[in-house]
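Metal-dependent carboxypeptidase
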Amino acid sequence: MSAYEELMAFERQTGALAQVAGRLGWDQETVMPRGAAHQRADESAAMQAVLHARRTDPRIGEWLAAIHNSDLDEVGQANLRHIRRSYERMQRVPEDLATRLAHLTSRAQGHWAEARADEDVDRFLPLLEEIVRLKREEGAALADGGDIYDALLDDYEPEAKAADLQTMFDAMRPRLVAVRAAALGKPAPQGLSGDFDEQAQMKLARKLAKTFGYDMQRGRIDKAVHPFSSGAHNDVRITTRTSRADPFNCLYSTIHEVGHACYEQNIDQDYGFTPLGSGVSMGVHESQSRIYENQLGRSRAFTGWLFGQMKDAFGDFGVATEDVFYAAVNRLHRGFIRTEADEVQYNLHVMLRFDLERAMIAGDLEVVDLQAAWNDRFKADFGYAVNKPSNGCLQDVHWSVGLFGYFPTYSLGNVYAGCLHEALRQAVPELDSQLAKGDLASATDWLKQNVQRHGGLYRPRQVIERASGAAPSEKPLLDYIEAKFEALYEI
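Tokens:
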């Protein structure tokens, strides 16, 4: 075997083990008995130790030194780029630190869920304080003298910089706030009310998943506290949640996670267990979930079809027409929960988290002061007070599992989705007539061919630029939001 062949055989084994480690997390969030939490923490830490040892194996450096880029095709060069980047980053993080983080975050996840259920911030903050301390340590090791937050951000959006994201957010905020103010000054559309059977919600959620192209032969849908997608290649699982008073929570969480899952399922099969066999970044990943959920799933054309499906599932649920239903789906509303926010306000929720986590990592915000800082910022941004911790700083799972640097990729994904949607509309001019029939095939195939199948072959911004024909910009997203909500609210 050549050095490249030996390296890739090693990488495929590491990739397979990483999927096993990920499945431990899926199991923990769905069906693991509560009493197994401490054992699962030990198991996760042990898997992390094995993975860290493999990812820092000296043979990787030897193989890399023996391989010349000029001898490889585009796929080989891309594999090498990812492997070299990962190897250099992992070399900087001590194995003991990686193991301690894995053990702590596995344990903290359960504590977060219990603290959230009991509205008990004080139960969780000591663990979060320790997580932040270890993430600072990890970030400092990765940064090698550079910006610590940028080093953590690089795990989720390679080559992105917090300063650039801040510039993007600063450009987005005024236009979003202006649309929100104008819309909330108008009479509120009718919302949903009633009692929606949870089994019927799950049945419709599974139908929607298939409608959007999710292959149930290579996936499954379960329930969890916080919806997520897990896995890659031919085992990609999603979760959703139900609320008897709000079926949109279930249905649109499902569509969102299906966007993530379809990205993973549609990557070129030849890339399985290699560095190219997963989504290239969380921003690009989020672009798929958001365009599925919003530009497609909340469009006037698709909601017309969904209205009929809702009547089939729930009978007369108090909404008279397709237009009233469309307004209900896209209703601007006061709320606390990021995942339930409308398209206009969603990014404002992300900006809040981005600023707070940067401050915690920088040491400008102590964890003990997080709740007060969150509540003050929320009141300033949204105009009303947080009423309980589960609607405030305890609502998201991310910090409990150490995902610092993850939150801004949600808004970056929205920006990418705006670029892709503009290009999709040009490529498929008959899109609305198809969506009105519940036919997503042209839309999802365009995304598969232009984004998803490439996996990690190209760099994140390069993926969007190749698909949309222009450098990523927040303008298409903001133009889309303004046009949609100005028409909806007659602004």
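Residues 305 and 436 are 5 Å apart (CA to CA).
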